[in-house]
Amino acid sequence: MFCPRGLYEAVFELKTDNTTGSELVTGDWVMRCEARTLDDIHALGGNDAADERRFATAARVSEIGLSSYRTFLQPFVRAVMSPRQPSGSVRSIRFASNMSSSPIQIQ
Fold first, then answer.
1. Angle 50-53-33 (CA atoms, 0-180°, nearest 5)?
2. Is 20 a domain residue?
């Protein structure tokens, strides 16, 4: 079973005879996922202003990386890859092994 998108805590408990489905568990531990919120994390403490600055920096680096991809790589990827052709085939890219020929051949 998959959890919907969100924030979860992995809770581990020792398997007992009262554990639901214990016959299906091959080890000594059972894990379950419990939905959490950002308020739950903040309640744990430990996040100070320095942590918030580090998270903000990581978020900004991620945004710059995505922007760089969209500016420089995505146009190339879109140029060499086409949507499915009506016949159902997909354009393929072969890299030539002979360096004297063109390094990329699009068929």
1. 90
2. yes
To which residue do tokens 């919907």 refer? 4
Count of the separate structural domains present in the chain: 2
Considering the domain architecture, whether residues 30 and 53 belong to the same structural domain is answered as no
pTM of the model: 0.40
Locate 59 and state its tokens: 């978020």
Q: What is the pLDDT along the chain (107 residues), one digit of tens a residue?
A: 677 888 999 999 998 888 888 888 888 998 889 999 989 988 888 778 888 899 999 999 999 999 999 999 999 998 888 776 555 555 555 544 444 444 454 54
Rg (CA), the chain: 25
Q: Does residue 87 form part of some domain? A: no
**Integer distance in angstroms from the first to the last C-alpha of the chain?**
41
Same domain, 51 and 28: no
Residues in the chain: 107
| Amino acid type, 75 | P
Both tokens of 7, joined, read 């924030």
